[in-house]
Write a structure and sequence with these properties.
metalloprotease, transmembrane, globular, alpha+beta
């Protein structure tokens, strides 16, 4: 591992360079500024290489790139944003004055500061280990997120263009246009629900946070995106209250520190520190290092802590994702039929709010498992929902969640043990053969996700085909369910991308850039990436394998997937799927 001070300084340099490029491109060609930044960055990497060696220099290079590209760069210049605002005013568009107070931005600083504080304590007192690198990346991400929030808070302006029937959100960061014809739902909260809006407290991406105060908050649900904003109390929002939407009642949201939110706060904080990050493990390691506890005892305690987290994972996810048990009378008979056919009687089905179309199974064993669907998924036809439930039921029945976690732990454990063994047995190897060690590490970095993909894809294909046996329509119904799911995912994604107002010079390029459907066979390179490194096989192949085979799971299905995994990854494979 490189020196901690140099690692942190590298992250600062990355932020500084991208800020420099963004700042000076107003007066100088971005090419020249980019060349200067590249020369400066390369000079820093060369310095680290001469001071610490090849292996450390490669890690420093990755930190520099990550921090450079993490910094929130505006999509357009301030002059271009003012030009858009001028056009909107000329058209007679009405500006929606936003309520702004510093308390809202301070809440983001509070939550981010708690997790950044764990990283700082580890940097000061913890050992220099791979966890240092993970925490540094998390630290950089949080700093980038806070920077974006500050720039958004300072510059955000909303306009209602009546002629276009659209809502414009304009800031230094981005400009978006939300057509009201895409608005499906509107609601009002007494204050922003910061336990839902803070990024580390959510597994999915349920929102775009435009809130700038802790006052009345409007939640507008568009196809592919939910937005939250806090207009001034004097502002009228009647333009979203069409005839089909009755007068809205305010939904009461308590402050995060209110007694009724203590359980949510605990669950979401624990989720952020153990599932979305390594903060809890870093805190334990720092404490034990500070107390002088032996490495063997520390490793045993951390292993037990990981097993404990796996055991309570269903309850943590339930609190973190604000899950609610499904009570829809149309869905309950379907749930009962699917899970009784699977032989599962102790699985509760929940819904969690998100604009994504997705489902998940959680829990370390059948008796402590749950299945959750996103709120958007519940809008699909019942036949499609039934197929998704059948797929998740097989994941629970086969204990795929537990298998996947154990697999990840074993793989990472073997790598750590291998590195420790080499370091202890051949201490001069790392110093004398750094280039060799570098290539071996990169091979392991590629092999780890590839091997994980091998196992997880097998579980996904099995869930498709065994799940089909739980359906009245068999493979045909499962294929139709996946097709409907993919079509809605693609449409929502396309709508969300379309909300971005891009500069005129980029519009022509975007029009030429035709996006393939998930159900279409992509070029060999993207097929290679999906088949070899992703957790799911490409959707086009999953649907095809269901449509062209009989319902059931056998060795022939395994051979079909195994052959396709490699044949479809080849550039000259011409088989039509």
């Amino acid at each position: 591992m490189p020196d901690l001070t140099i690692s942190i300084l590298t992250a600062v340099i990355g932020f500084f360079l991208i800020f420099l490029v963004d700042f000076f491109k107003k007066w100088r060609s971005s090419v020249y500024v980019g060349i200067f930044a590249a020369i400066f960055g390369i000079g820093w990497i060369v310095y680290v290489f001469l001071e610490q060696g090849f292996l450390e220099a490669t890690i420093i290079f990755s930190i520099l790139l990550f921090s450079f590209f993490s910094f929130p760069v505006p999509e357009r210049s301030g002059a271009q944003s003012q030009e858009i605002i001028g056009k909107l005013k000329k058209q007679g568009s009405r500006e929606i004055v936003l309520s702004k107070n510093k308390e809202r931005i301070l809440l983001d600083f509070l939550f981010a500061g708690l997790f950044m504080g764990i990283a700082v304590l580890y940097f000061l007192f913890g050992p220099n280990s791979p966890i240092t690198l993970v925490l540094l990346y998390s630290f950089v991400s949080l700093v980038a997120g806070l920077t974006k929030r500050i720039r958004l808070f300072r510059s955000l302006r909303f306009f209602y263009a009546e002629q276009e029937e659209a809502l414009y959100a304009i800031s230094f960061i981005e400009t978006k246009k939300y057509p009201l014809k895409e608005l499906s739902e509107a609601s009002v909260q007494t204050r922003p629900d910061v336990l839902q809006l803070f990024p580390l407290f959510s597994l999915f991406s349920p929102h775009t946070d435009y809130t700038t105060s802790v006052g009345k908050t409007w939640k507008l649900s568009f196809s592919g995106e939910k937005i939250y904003l806090t207009p001034d109390p004097s502002e009228s929002m009647d333009f979203v209250l069409r005839e089909e939407r009755k007068k809205l009642e305010e939904i009461e949201v308590k402050p995060f520190y209110h007694q009724s939110n203590w359980k949510r706060l605990l669950g979401k904080g624990y989720f952020a520190a153990t599932v979305k990050g390594v903060g809890a493990y870093a805190a334990l390691l720092t404490l034990f290092t500070f107390m002088g506890i032996s490495p063997l005892m520390t490793a045993m305690v951390i292993l037990l802590f990981w097993i404990f987290n796996l055991w309570i994972s269903d309850r943590v996810l339930k609190m973190a994702l604000d899950m609610k048990e499904i009570s829809d009378p149309q869905l309950l008979p379907i749930i009962e039929k699917v899970f009784s056919r699977a032989g599962l009687s102790h699985v509760t089905i929940y819904v969690t709010e998100s604009v994504e179309y997705n489902g998940l199974a959680a829990g370390a064993n059948i008796g402590r498992s749950l299945v959750a669907l996103t709120s958007e998924t519940l809008k699909l036809p019942l036949e499609a929902i039934e197929g998704i439930l059948a797929h998740e039921a097989i994941h629970v029945k086969k204990r795929d969640v537990l298998t996947g976690q154990l697999l990840r732990f074993v793989l990472i454990g073997w790598i750590v043990i291998g590195i420790f063994f080499i370091h202890e047995t051949y201490p001069n190897l790392l110093k004398n053969h750094q280039i060799l060690v570098f290539f071996v590490l990169w091979i392991l970095i590629f092999l780890l996700p590839a091997f994980q993909s091998l196992i997880t894809q097998w579980m996904e294909v099995r869930a498709d085909h065994l799940g089909a046996t739980l359906l009245d329509g068999g493979n045909v119904q499962m294929a139709k369910s996946l097709t409907i799911l993919s079509e809605h995912q693609d449409q929502a994604s396309e709508k969300a991308i379309g909300y971005h107002v891009v500069p005129e010079e980029e519009q022509e390029a975007e029009e030429k850039d035709e996006r393939l459907s998930s159900l279409e066979r992509d070029s060999w390179f993207f097929r290679f990436l999906e088949f070899q490194f992703m957790s799911h096989p490409p959707m086009y192949w999953r649907v095809h394998s269901l449509r062209t085979t009989e319902t059931g799971w056998n060795i022939g299905k395994i051979k079909l997937w195994w052959n396709s995994r490699f044949q479809e990854s080849l550039p000259n494979w011409k088989k039509n799927l």
